[in-house]
Design goal:
There is one protein chain. The chain is α+β, with helices and mostly antiparallel strands. The chain is 29% helix and 26% strand. The protein is built from 33 helices and 57 strands. The strands form 12 sheets. Strands 12, 24, 26, 28, 30, 33, 38, 40, 42, 44 and 45 form an 11-stranded antiparallel sheet that branches. Strands 14, 16, 17, 19, 21, 22 and 23 form a 7-stranded mixed sheet that branches. Strands 10, 11, 13, 15, 18 and 20 form a 6-stranded antiparallel sheet that branches. Helix 4 runs antiparallel to helix 7 and helix 22 runs antiparallel to helix 23.
Length: 1463
């Protein structure tokens, strides 16, 4: 249970005190009323004795009574009505609310900090931001437990308003004060009248109420004297007369009203009455101000003056005999004039404000001084000492004597009880065995009742030992008689007495209480008495820290007959759970919810709200979403009822923003309730700022911002550049590629350096882009913001009039700032145009994006703050509880049930900073400025359209398309360039290209090449032309990827458009290719903020297989060519048709083979006659052989080093000029991409430079830079129509004897090898040239007759002259050694070589100058006929300036066979 102000040892004696009646004459009542008090109220603050009192028990032992209190009340002859008591209790509870501003109470229970106090309404609800601080403050202070003053007020009022009963005497009147005034005409006669009146009330059968303790009631005569108005001598004389008549012990002169009330303002006298009267003053301001009146007041309830005990506030009517009805009577019709303007009226809600005004001016005890206070206190002391206690002592003795005599007991009851309790206990019958005899009544003089009377008297004067003995005896008697009501009463009081006995001789008999409660409840059906038992027993158990038992007891008495009682007991049970040794927090919360529910049913809305809020502390954030929803919903409803609209909105908002597990219908109900409450709130302040709406969720970080116009759709053959759009997914790889392309083109424009101010252009900002700088937008170009909404509910949400919320600061970036700031919702349409989406429906649990546009018409700084919209739901079959569709509903495609206008802010957290040490150790976030664009001045805007752009090509196929460039802005643009990672894919034609007609509607079969009709006789020989790579943009140091677009006049004026031809070549690899083009352009007028703009296009091309070309080149072994210089080559070309018939290609025709080189050219075809047409059907292979010769030196010298010689060998009757566009373009582009590939460099460590040079020279001998271009046509059947496709393949020949391919080779991964460990012996690895490279240093060739006839019978030795030609292929001097000795000695070699020998010198040493040819005349000697291989000379060579000799192995030449015949 909650902590109480009083301990249980103080509470119980204060709840059961001696009752004294007061009977006043009218004059006496008038005197007290001058102080706005009745006589009983006048005495109330002084009714507790300030000193200890003594009395003697029946055994003449002295007994001390501490803190004795007496209860004086006016006589009321009508018993209180249960309905009135219920209403009083209800008012007491509703009047006692947690006071605002007190320190909160926090219980630390397990892992929870529970705030159970005045602030709990704020502190427990999830939206209360300060509650954590409150908790922290309190945790530092000592541990608090919670108090519940409303429960204490209820308990006090309940115990004091209990009607007197016949089965117990605790609240029966023991004495009666008869009060008359000294101003009476005949005071003594008045006393006699009052005495007779009391006698008549007590002994006349007409009055069953009030109850009197014993027939012989103590009468105490009090003479009231008004000091300020009365005659003191007369008062004294009357008092003397009273003493003579009634004895000094039976009367008292009480002097009051020492001053007149008009002097009240002179000095401040304390008002001890207010604390007593305030409790019964039910009009607690808050209950009226904050919520509807919970009091059901009847018309005449003004006359109900309820004080603390609720029994003594009525003023007597004119005649003493006319007794008032009980003040708790509901249906009385007393004259309103009787209710003197005391502060304690229950007012109806209408007269409330007048009451408050009236109450503020009332001062209690205005005519009393502090001396009067002391006199009243002295009076109570005298009355108790001299009157009441002697009377009680005498009564106890009489009762004791009666009991002894009647029972015939020889000993006093005192000693007898000792024997009864020391042993031989009689087993008590269980409650269930007893007959239902609660109806049994004893006569007043029955001995059993005398024991009970004596027990009650002892209990009232705190003689708990004797009381316990008597109760125990009475309990046995009652149980024997099966008088269950009496037995339960005795059991109850026996248990309390046992607990209160000093020194605690025996444990608290809780089973007595349990039996009593069960009897009251089940047998006697008296819930009031059962409730008293529970309240007392729970307090006792709590004081013994038996919280579990106390909670069980409290919960047991909750029932349907009283919501208020059940609510209070459940709340106390909840506090028991939290106060246990190991707190049961969840049980606490659960019972608080139950208590809140019962409070709500009892009409105690504020208490209900408080209970739910306290329980919420436990449930929130634990994942019990349904429980949270229920609590929040109830908090919302209760707050709304109490007109705490902000709290209501917050609670309903919380239900909606949690990931709700409710059903769709329930969520719909929650949403409509929220909208309804929200609407009421917004109507209170229609001009206030727009509130934040909780739905739908906005994923702020997923917000994307796009600058620019939407992309145009494709129009027939016209296809717009893809550029950037919100429909494209972000891809970091492609984003990096675009960035590199832009850097490339910017570097070219800025002469190879990227300026420091350069930042990549970003048209679409998202969570992946770099948003640390303010983005730049261009005036008159729309800004699109994509907001990602998510509807967490299972009901659809309808947003209407959805638009962006922004503020704009116009600025002139060139001059001074214009600081005028235009803000917010309505906006300035002439500054920024705002697009409004009239309806936006988000279905249940759907994520959906809305694209909202702004149209800036002025330069300046724009800040996009959020979105503003009306939130509603679609009108379904469900309606809000008792709420129809509200006015102001939207009529559109969907019918709205109700909507409210609000906003949501777009707040984007920037990226986590992680650069410096400080940033790494703390959590810091950078800015995200994607919603704060700077609007800059006008810029040109380019649109690019592609006409007849193919989607599928054969590998190597050439196709002609057209590109249209349109300037759609109001500024001219210039400096148009295009950059691509795949420059070999397209060309606009070189500078030499004759511009083809601009209309793309030319015949489809029109060739993309520049052709010349040739004479068929010139088939075998090559046609020579030349071109410079500079003309095709492939100059030295240039970037082949960056291509200037040849615009006429280099400027595109506003609104102008130009069409240019564009040739495309299908990539050499089959598959799908994404090719990125980046168009770069600038404004003619330079802008400070934006230097350039870009436009992106991604072309997707699907290529299918066509031809595979492989080529090798080797030295010709023939003698010198026509020019007399060595160096003819043979070029072998293999062409394979790898196309599968799926593409519809019938056959390929090789129409021309061209060469392009700085030093070599094709001369003629060697094997042409065999395959005149050069056709290749599917999967066929063709082989070509060409002779290549060196270009003339003078040609090479005349032209620049970038000059290439083109030689065309034609297999038809049309020559394609290979040195013109587009053939040469694509050749140069493929060449430049080939050159970009890293070449294998020789690694040289410790060798001398000379060795390095030697190696380079040797290597150069085997190099050749001959490039072959194969031009072809393919015949395709498509839709029964024959098309001719054309294309070209390139083979780049670098090394003699090494095969080269037109298509990239796949690298096969090397096989795994075992790991070998070894110690390197010599780290300096000498670089030796490879055998292949050496064999190309010196070219050897033998000239001899193929067959030689010799008459061996005439001359046995046959001598044959042989010429050995040595040709130096390098550009350096070479020393050569020719060794003619046979090296091999094996028998197999002897068989071949041993039959002939060389005559003459066996070794020659020569030096060959650069590219010199030297001939040696040798003689071979044969002795037999046969076939001989003359290729045995071994040649060694070294560069003249080198020491090392390299053997050049010449044996890999063809065998030199000679036939020797005998004639």
């Amino acid at each position: 249970m909650a902590q109480c102000v009083q301990s249980v040892q103080e509470l119980i004696p204060d709840s059961f005190v001696p009752c004294v009646a007061a009977l006043c004459s009218e004059e006496a009542e008038r005197l007290t009323r001058l102080n706005h008090l009745s006589f009983a109220e006048l005495l109330k603050p002084f009714s507790r004795l300030t000193s200890e009192v003594h009395m003697r028990d029946p055994n003449n032992q002295l007994h001390i009574i501490k803190n004795l209190k007496i209860a004086v009340s006016n006589i009321i002859t009508q018993p209180p009505q249960p309905g009135a008591i219920r209403k009083l209790l209800n008012d007491v509870v509703s009047g006692s609310q947690p006071a605002e501003g007190l320190v909160a109470n926090v219980i630390t229970a397990g892992d929870y900090d529970l705030n159970i106090s005045d602030r709990s309404i704020k502190a427990s609800v999830p939206w209360y931001s300060n509650w954590k601080d409150t908790l922290m403050e309190l945790k530092e202070s000592s541990l608090y437990t919670a108090t519940t003053p409303w429960f204490e007020s209820y308990r006090e009022t309940f115990l004091q308003s209990m009607p007197a009963s016949d089965h117990e005497f605790l609240n029966h009147y023991l004495a009666c004060m008869l009060v008359a005034s000294s101003n009476e005409v005949e005071p003594m006669e008045q006393f006699s009248k009052l005495s007779q009146e009391q006698h008549r009330i007590q002994h006349n059968n007409d009055y069953s109420y009030p109850k009197w303790f014993i027939p012989n009631t103590l009468k105490y005569y009090v003479l009231l004297h008004d000091i300020s108005a009365g005659d003191e001598q007369r008062a004294e004389s009357i008092y003397e007369e009273m003493k003579q008549k009634y004895g000094t012990q039976g009367c008292y002169l009480l002097k009051i009203n020492s001053r007149t009330s008009n002097r009240a303002s002179d000095e401040q006298i304390p008002d001890p009455w207010s604390q007593y009267l305030q409790k019964s003053s039910i009009q607690n301001q808050e209950s009226y101000e904050d919520g509807p009146c919970t009091i059901t007041s009847n018309k005449n309830s003004d006359s109900n003056l309820l004080s603390l005990d609720g029994l003594d506030n009525e003023v007597k009517d004119g005649l003493p005999n006319n007794f008032r009805a009980h003040p708790l009577q509901l249906d009385q019709s007393s004259d309103p004039s009787n209710s003197i303007d005391g502060p304690d009226h229950v007012k109806s809600a209408s007269s409330l404000h007048e009451t408050k005004k009236a109450n503020t001016g009332i001062i209690h005890g205005a005519c009393l001084t502090l001396t009067d206070h002391d006199r009243i206190r002295q009076f109570i002391q005298e009355f108790t000492f001299r009157g009441l206690l002697p009377h009680i002592e005498k009564t106890i003795r009489q009762l004791n004597d009666q009991l002894i005599s009647r029972k015939g007991l020889s000993r006093s009851l005192f000693s007898a009880t000792k024997k009864w309790f020391s042993g031989s206990k009689v087993p008590e019958k269980s409650i269930n065995e007893l007959k239902n005899t609660s109806g049994l009544l004893y006569p007043p003089e029955a001995p059993e009742l005398q024991i009970r009377k004596m027990a009650d008297l002892c209990f009232l004067v705190q003689h708990y030992d004797l009381a316990y003995s008597c109760y125990h005896t009475a309990k046995k008697d009652f149980l024997n008689d099966q008088a269950m009501l009496y037995a339960a009463g005795a059991l109850e009081m026996a248990a309390v007495s046992a607990f209160l006995q000093p020194g605690a001789p025996r444990p608290y008999p809780a089973h007595y209480m349990d039996t009593a409660i069960q009897t009251y409840r089940d047998i006697c059906k008296n819930m009031v008495l059962a409730e008293r038992c529970v309240l007392l027993s729970a307090e006792i158990l709590k004081s013994q820290s038996k919280y579990s038992e106390a909670a069980a007891l409290l919960i047991r008495l909750t029932s349907e007959d009283s919501d208020l009682r059940s609510a209070l007991l459940l709340e106390q049970a909840a506090h028991c759970f939290i106060n246990m040794k190991s707190p049961m927090v969840r049980k606490y919360a659960f019972h608080m919810i139950l208590a809140g529910h019962r409070f709500s049913k009892a009409g105690q809305k504020k208490h209900a709200l408080r209970c739910y809020c306290q329980a919420m502390q436990v449930y929130k954030g634990k994942g019990w979403s349904l429980a949270e929803d229920h609590i929040n919903f109830t908090i919302g409803r209760q707050s709304y009822t109490l007109r705490q609209l902000d709290n209501a909105v917050s609670a309903f908002r919380h239900i909606l923003i949690n990931e709700s597990k409710q059903s769709a219908a329930q969520q719909g109900a929650f949403l409509r309730e929220y909208l309804y409450v929200y609407k009421n709130v917004s109507q209170l302040s229609p001009d206030g700022p727009l509130p934040q709406l909780p739905l739908p969720y906005i994923n702020s970080s997923a917000t994307r911002v796009f600058f620019g116009h939407d992309r145009r759709p494709a129009d027939g053959e016209k296809q717009a550049a893809t550029h950037v759009s919100l429909d494209q997914e972000y891809d970091s790889e492609s984003s990096q590629q675009w960035r590199e392309l832009e850097e490339q083109v910017v570097a070219v424009v800025n002469k190879g350096i990227i300026p420091s101010s350069f930042h990549p252009t970003q048209y679409c900002l998202n969570s992946y882009s770099d948003n640390s700088r303010f983005p730049l937008a261009v005036v008159e170009e729309p800004i699109t913001v994509e907001v990602a909404f998510r509807n967490p509910l299972k009901v659809p949400l309808l947003l209407t009039d959805l638009s962006l919320l922004w503020k704009f600061q116009p600025k002139d970036f060139s001059g001074k700032d214009n600081e005028e700031v235009k803000e917010l919702i309505t906006g300035e349409p002439e500054m920024i145009g705002t697009e409004v989406i009239s309806e936006f429906l988000i279905n249940s649990e759907e994520s959906k994006v809305a694209r909202l546009k702004l149209f800036p018409h002025h330069i300046g700084e724009l800040h996009i703050l959020g979105v503003v919209y009306n939130l509603g739901t679609i009108q379904g079959s469900l309606t809000v509880d008792g709420i129809g569709a509200l006015p102001g509903c939207h009529t559109g495609k969907h019918s709205l049930s109700m909507s409210v206008r609000g906003r949501q802010d777009l707040e984007i957290q920037g990226p986590r900073l992680n650069n410096t040490k400080e940033e790494k150790t703390s959590i810091k976030y950078g800015p995200d400025r994607r919603l704060d664009p700077i609007i800059t001045e006008e810029m040109p805007l380019l649109e690019v359209f592609f006409i007849h752009f193919p989607t599928g090509l054969l590998c190597g196929e050439i196709r002609k398309a057209y590109v249209e460039f349109v300037n759609v802005s109001k500024c001219p643009l210039t400096g148009l360039k295009v950059v691509s990672k795949r420059p070999e894919f397209f060309t606009f034609g070189g500078n030499t290209a004759v511009l083809t007609p601009l209309s793309p509607s030319a015949s489809e079969n029109c060739s993309a090449y520049k052709t010349v009709v040739t004479d068929s006789t010139s088939v075998c020989t090559a046609l020579i032309s030349s071109a410079s790579s500079v003309d095709f943009g492939i100059g030295i140091g240039s970037q082949p990827e960056v291509i200037s677009v040849p615009l006429p006049d280099t400027v595109l004026l506003p609104g102008a458009s130009v069409q240019l031809p564009m040739w495309l070549r299908g990539p050499d690899e089959e598959g799908v290719h994404e090719i990125n083009f980046l168009f770069y352009y600038e404004s003619v007028k330079k802008q400070p903020k934006i230097r350039h703009r870009i436009l992106r296009h991604t072309a997707v091309i699907c290529t299918s297989r066509s031809l595979n070309v492989r080529a090798t080149v080797c030295r010709s072994n023939s003698l010198e060519d026509e020019e007399g210089r060595g160096g003819n080559m043979l070029v072998f070309v293999d062409v394979e048709n790898t196309n599968t018939s799926e593409a519809g290609v019938k056959e390929f025709h090789i129409v021309q083979v061209s060469s392009s080189s700085k030093h070599w050219k094709l001369q003629n075809s060697v094997n042409l006659a065999e395959n005149k047409e050069a056709k290749l059907a599917s999967r066929e292979k063709g082989k070509f052989c060409f002779k290549a010769i060196r270009c003339k030196e003078k040609e090479g010298a005349m032209q620049s080093s970038e000059r290439y010689t083109f030689a065309d060998i034609i297999f038809g009757n049309e020559q394609i000029i290979s040195s013109a566009s587009p053939c040469a373009d694509f050749f140069y582009r493929s060449l430049s991409s080939e050159l970009k590939k890293p070449q294998a460099q020789l690694s040289l460590h410790t060798e001398k430079h000379s060795t390095e040079d030697a190696l380079r020279l040797i290597k150069k001998c085997s190099e050749v830079d001959l490039n072959i271009v194969i031009l072809w046509k393919a015949y395709v059947v498509e839709d029964s129509k024959q098309l001719i496709l054309e294309g070209q393949h390139h083979v780049i020949l670098r090394t003699i004897g090494k095969e080269a391919f037109s298509y990239p080779q796949k690298q096969e991964p090397p096989e795994m090898e075992l790991l070998k460990f070894f110690r390197p012996e010599n780290t300096a690895v000498s670089s030796r040239p490879s055998v292949d490279q050496l064999s190309n240093l010196i070219k050897t060739s033998l000239h001899y007759p193929e067959s030689f006839n010799h008459p061996f019978h005439q001359k046995s030795l046959c001598l044959v002259p042989v010429t050995l030609l040595l040709s130096n292929c390098s550009k350096a001097d070479v020393d050569v050694i020719v060794d003619l000795r046979h090296k091999t000695t094996s028998p197999e070699a002897l068989e071949i070589h041993g039959s002939f020998t060389w005559l003459g010198q066996t070794q020659y040493k020569l030096q060959l100058k650069s590219q010199e040819i030297h001939s040696l005349q040798l003689k071979a000697c044969f002795v037999h006929t046969g076939v001989y291989n003359l290729g045995t000379p071994r040649v060694f060579a070294k560069l003249s300036d080198q020491v090392t000799v390299f053997e050049t192995s010449q044996q890999n030449s063809m065998p030199a066979l000679i036939i020797i015949n005998n004639v």
